[in-house]
Amino acid sequence: MNTLLAITRMTLITIAALIALVLVFFASLLPVRVRRASLSLWVVVYAARVFMFLFNVRVICTELELLRQHEGLIFMNHMSYLEALGILSLTPVRFMAAVEVRRRAISGWIAARMGTIFVERDNASSRSITRDSVRTVMQLSPYPPMVVFPEGRLGDGVRLHQFRFGIFDIACEGSIPYLLCAVQFNRPDVAVWRGPRGESLMSAIWKLAKSRGKIFVDIFPLYVVHPTPQDNPRQLARNARRDVAEHLGIAAGIPE
Known about the structure:
Strand order of the largest sheet: 3-9-8-4-7-5-6
Shape: globular
């Protein structure tokens, strides 16, 4: 029965993704903005809501208006593809993502249309270009906010990686406000994508597709920081990781 449920869900979400692809394409041709976000981005927001509905995932946000009204950057801990879909189902956002995301057929194309900034983390030139791009984009258009996962990789759902200070440095240089958020799942056995252990994205989605019962994604906006060039980005990164860990009840981080 679980396999039949998974096949049904995967079939429906494939159809929905193809429809979204067409709608995003045509919406991107129109210079229309709805509540300060592009029409094509709103199409993606509703596509994320369809995904969450079909897979029986519910998103709970303790400070929804703070999230929806924020302009600037949003920092979140990272252990699944569901954090991105979860926050996107609540409000229009953009992302900073690894260049590998751009190479995925459908999701990569849609991510590019959303205004995602892609970075090749092991390439110094790419990182430099990314820094300039983020500063420019945030200065010209701080809304919709841009979501960044400062761990820079998937965690295991139990502990946090160190937060990389580079994005905090960008925030300080550009005086870009950031909203710190903590995320957790009620069923990490299903929700966590164990990519570092060799689990593919499709395997992770298939695992979710076979699951029964609700999956809850809890997003906790903690506070907004208004950094300045005089702030220490390394200390801000340490503070952010500490506060997320404390909120989630995580005692120790993953050794670097």
